[in-house]
Amino acid sequence: MMWRAVVSAVLLAAATIASAQSRPTASDIDAELAAVAKQTGARGIAMAVIRDGVVEHVRTYGERNAQGAPLQDATIMYGASITKAAFAHMVMQLVEAGTLDLDTSIASYLPRPLPSYPTEEKYAPWSDLQGDERWRRLTPRILLTHASGFSNFAFIEPDGKLRFHFNPGARYAYSGEGMILLQFVLEQGLGLDVGDQMQRRVFDRFGMPNTSMIWRASFASNLADGWKADGTVEPHDERSKVRAAGSMDTTIADIARFAAGYVRGDGLSARGRAELTRPQLPITTASQFPSLQPELPAARRRAGLAAGLGVISFDGPQGRGFFKGGHNDSTGNTWVCVEKRRDCVVILANDVRAEPAFPRLVEFAIGNTGVPWDWEYGDMTFLKRP
Questions:
Q1: pLDDT per residue over 315-341, tens digit each?
Q2: Regions of the chain short of the pLDDT cut 50
Q3: pLDDT of 382
Q4: What pLDDT shows up at residue 126?
Q5: Torsion sign over Cα 111, 114, 116, 117
Q6: Mind listing the pLDDT tens digit for each residue in 230-265?
Q7: Where are the beta strands (DSSP E) in the chain?
Q8: Tell me, what's the pLDDT at 121?
Q9: What are phi and psi of 143, to 5 degrees?
Q10: What is the pTM of this model?
């Protein structure tokens, strides 16, 4: 497929570059961003490099909108599903505070049975689970490891109804709906405002002044629109509802500070931080999407690939690493870290055409990590996921 051909080309170029240098300078990164933009046609891309838990470089290339305004390190960009990793960090803080237990049934936190709650626009139709008591088996850990048994979102089901496709905890299958359910439990069961908790426990803690779970009017002055695969422009969505699955707006400078603090372990005990990226649940599919694809035979499964809490853990040539991607029709994001060296790369692109260059950019910045790109992207037949 065309995407695979582009990946092959950019990886070949990356191998040549990697042999010449191992630690790129700011000007090297600028040149590399310009090169991949030319090769892919991407109009805007931002990249941060973290070394040993310290932000070393934050660089941007291109435009933030069709009028040609420059993309800057303080430009508001869509965080997409990287939101899930930030949400999991906040949840782990609640666990360490004794507010929540990862392995307690959500039924223990809700004042009444989940299916008895009326349908609201912000949440899935929990009433669809009426008569299926398996919802009581759901725990925060199961929801954070994408093992709920739900499809990605109820609205993509043929009939629009929420249902279990397998028993909770049985396997990995990406589900934004599972994250939204955990948000519901925190809000309805524990009386917490998830937007406020994210602000205080994550964005304020990590020094992220231009990051929020909902739209701020102040974002409008330096805002990134996006480009779709066909080159058309998609205006930035002014998200009015907190969505743990992916409503975060951020900047490359802000998300770099989060990535650095996360890999250092800020805000958590050593044990709590390790729990986030510990391999919790083996991943048994050929690719991440479609979410409910059949599991591979045991002999064909990728060794060392597993769900952490809000991130994916993998084994590579530099040791264990973790990553989290984010995508919609006009956004391509990735965040990759190597645990032992505490080296990370974060890429935010307001043009989805930049994604084929992500393997090249990560290898250029921190070497061969072993990220399972083919599992992450598969054949690039993405489901639209907010």
A1: 999 999 999 999 999 999 999 999 999
A2: 1-21, 380-386
A3: 37
A4: 98
A5: positive
A6: 999 999 999 999 999 999 999 999 999 999 999 999
A7: 44-51, 54-62, 77-78, 226-227, 233-234, 249-250, 281-282, 306-307, 312-316, 319-328, 331-338, 343-349
A8: 83
A9: -70, -40
A10: 0.93
Rounded to the nearest 10°, the torsion over CA 343, 347, 348, 349 is 180
Contact 246, 175 (CB under 8 A): no
Any residues with CB less than 8 A from the CB of 255 and at least 6 apart, and which? 48, 79, 82, 208, 211, 335, 346, 348
- What is the rounded distance in angstroms from the CA atom of residue 199 to the CA atom of residue 323? 22
- Alpha-carbon span 8 to 186, nearest angstrom: 44
State both tokens at 376: 């992450």
- Return the number of other C-beta atoms located less than 10 Å from residue 128's C-beta: 17
Q: Per DSSP, what are the bridge partners of residue 226?
A: 234
Q: What is the pLDDT of residue 122?
A: 84
Burial classification of residue 113, based on how many CB atoms lie within 10 Å of its CB (0-12 exposed, 13-18 middle, 19 or more buried): middle
Helices (H), 150-284: 176-184, 194-198, 252-264, 270-277
Query: What domains are there in the chain, each with its CATH number?
Result: 2-81+193-282+305-377 (3.40.710.10)
- Provide the residue type at 165 as one letter: H
CA 145 – CA 68 distance, rounded (Å): 40
CA distance 333 to 53: 20
Spatial separation of the C-alpha atoms in residues 64 and 77, rounded to whole Å: 9
C-alpha torsion sign, points 339, 260, 344, 357: positive
Alpha helices in 278-372 (DSSP H): 358-366
Work out the number of other CB atoms within 10 angstroms of the CB of residue 160.
11
Half-sphere exposure of residue 60: CA atoms within 13 angstroms, side-chain side: 23
